[in-house]
Input
Amino acid sequence: MQTTIKPVGRRLGGTRQLRAGGQGGRAGRKMAAVWLVRLAILGAVLGGWQFITTDPTWRLLIGRPTEVISLVRAWLVDSAFWLDVSITLAESATGYALGVAAAIGLIAIIIPFPVVGRFLSPFIAIVNSLPKIALAPVFIVWFGISFQSKIYFIAVAMFFVVFYGVYSGLKNIDRTLVDNLLVMGSSGLERVRDVYVPATAGWLISSLRISVAWALTAAVISEYIASNQGLGHRIALGQQSLDPNAVVAGIFMVALVSLTADRLLTLIDKRFRQWRLS
Amino acid sequence: MATLVKLRMPLLQVAAVLALLGLWQWGTAGGVLDTFIVGTPGETFGQLKNWIVDGTLLRSSLSTLQVLLLGWGIGTVLGVAIGAMIGLNEFFRLVTDPFITFFNGMPRLVLYPFLAVWLGFGIQAKILLVVLVIVVVVATIVATGFRDVDNNLIDNSKLMGARRFDIARDVYAPSLASWLIGSSRVTLGYAFQAAITAEFIGSSKGLGFLVVFGESRLNVNEIWAALAAVIAIAWALDGLVGLWERRALRWSRLSGAR
Output
C-alpha cells in the first residue's frame, strides 16, 4: 500500500529533479527548437508587417519596419534625441523621488500617531481608487507645459504605490525583532535605524523596479498630452505630422528605456537582497 | 457613550470635508485663493448639475464604462487562454517567455497613439488598448496559478478515475475562478486607467475627454466636476467588485484552502 501512494505525493519533487538533472543532449535540442520557434514568430510578424506595407495606404497607417529601423538609427546619433531621453528620465526620477519622500513623510507621521492614519485612511482610499492618469490635466493647468507639471503629476501617481507598499511592509515587520530590541533596552531612534529603515529600504529597492515602468508611463503620457520636449512629445509630433514610423520608433524607444531600467534594477535588487529584512 | 466613541471618527472626517469646502468657498469669495487655480465649489457643483441635467454625465460615463467593460472582458478571456497554454505547456511557455517579458516590462499605455493612427479614433482602438494592457497581467496570473495547482489534487482525482474533462472542471476551473476574482480589482483598475488614457487622446466622448476638455479651456471647475464623476465610478466599481469578491470567495476562506 505504502509503495503505491508514495510516488503520488512526490510527483512535483520528482519532475523538478528530472528537469534540474537534465539529460544534456535532449534539453539542448529542446532549447534549439524553442529558439527556432521564437525567431519564426518574430520573423513572421515583422515580415508580414513589411509585406503588407508595400501598399502605401498601409504604410501611412502603421509605418514600415525597415523605415522604423533606419529612423531609430538616425535618432541614435542625434543629440536632440538623447536630450529628449534625458528629459523623460529626469522627470521620472525626480517625480519618483518626490513621491517617495511624500509617502515616507506621511508614514513617519502615521506610525507614531495611529489616530492620524485612521482619520486619513478613507480619503487616501478614495483618491487611490481614482485612475491616477486622470489627474495629469490638472497639473498641466496648474503648472503649464513645464518640467514641474510632469514631476508633480508623477509624484502623485507614485505616492500611492509607495505609500501602500511601505505601510503594509512596516505593518508586516516581525514583531519579535522589535520586541527583542525593546528587551535589550533600545531607544526609539535605534529601533527606527535598525529595524524600520532597513525594512523600508529593502522594500523600496524592489518596488522601484515595479514602479519604474509606471513612472515612465506617467512621464510619457503627460509629455504626449502637452509638452515641447521628451519622448512623449516625439511620439505626439510623429502623430501630428502623419509619420507612423516616428510613432512606432518612439514607442519602441520608450519600451527599450523601460526594459533597460528594469534590467539594471533587477541587478541592484539581487545585489541588495542578501541583507533584506523580510 | 460607546456609540458616540465609535461615531467620533466619521463625524470628524465629515466635519473636515465640510470645513475644507467652507474654506474653499470663503477663500475664493474673499479673493485669498486664485479661482483660476482652484476653481470654486459653487461653479464645480453647478457644472456637475448642468452635466447631469443635459445628460452629458450619463452619456460620458456609459461611453467610458463600455470601453472599460468590453476591453476588460475580452482581455480576461484572451488572458485566460494564453495563460492556460503557458501554464500547461512547457514548450509554449519557453517560446513565449521573452515576448511576455518584453510586453510586461514596457509601458503599454503608450501604445495608444499607434493604435489610434492605425484603427482611427473610434471605439476599436480604445478597446484594443484596454485589452493589451490587461491581457499580460491576466495571462501571468493564470499561468503561475496553473503551474502551482496542487499536483496531489490532480493525482488523487486521476486515481479516482477522473478524465481530462473532469479534472478541468473540478480542479482547474474552481482555482481559475478564484484567481480571476481575486485579481479582478487590480485588472479593473488597470482597465480604467487605459480607458481614461484612450479618451484623453483625440476622443470626443467619455469622462477622460471631459477632463481634457476642461484642461484645454483652462477651466478648473470642469476638471473637478469630471474628476468627481471619475472618482464616484471608480469607487462604486471597486466597492462592487470587492463585495462580489468577498461573496464569491467565502467558501475558500471557510475551508481554509488558499
